[in-house]
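debug: dumping io for the single-chain case to check the tokenizer round-trip. Nothing else runs in this session.
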Amino acid sequence: MKIEAIKIEDHSAVEQLLRQAFTDTPHGYDGEAELVTALRQDPKYNAKAELVAKDDDGQIIGQVLITPIIVDGPQSDSHGAALAPLAVDPHWQHKGVGKALMQAIEQVAEDLGIHFIIVMGWPDYYPQFGYVPASRFNIRAPFDVPNENFMAKAITPHGLENINGTVRYLDAFDGV
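debug: decoded output
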């Protein structure tokens, strides 16, 4: 398996992966492909912050993306990111692809000077990477979400220190 920054020629394969990974689940959500397409149109999108995992034949088997956020509060901070989405081909799940993508994207975040990452995801998955409920830092989502699904992790030492308030995502999150 190889992990690398996305290339334009990977976009259609990633769209197919996202549709397969999210539509073919018991939850049936299919908006991730549209979200990623919209995020790529935002001027703040950084292709270095979107990674793909490829198998030995060069086929895309996973994808992860982080985008900038701001936490509106007493000390607003724009050095955070939202992780959305993380997707792994259903045939490659439980084989370490997601773990490898998480480790790689956190290194990218650190390299880009991002202090913390917010994720809305499964509470039985992300804690293994050190994510905890964002409410521990008095960080709130701008919409209703169960406490255990809205998580945060400091990427740099003290990355969540004095950060509290409501997350403001890129506008693309509003449109899907």
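debug: round-trip ok. The mean pLDDT is 92.
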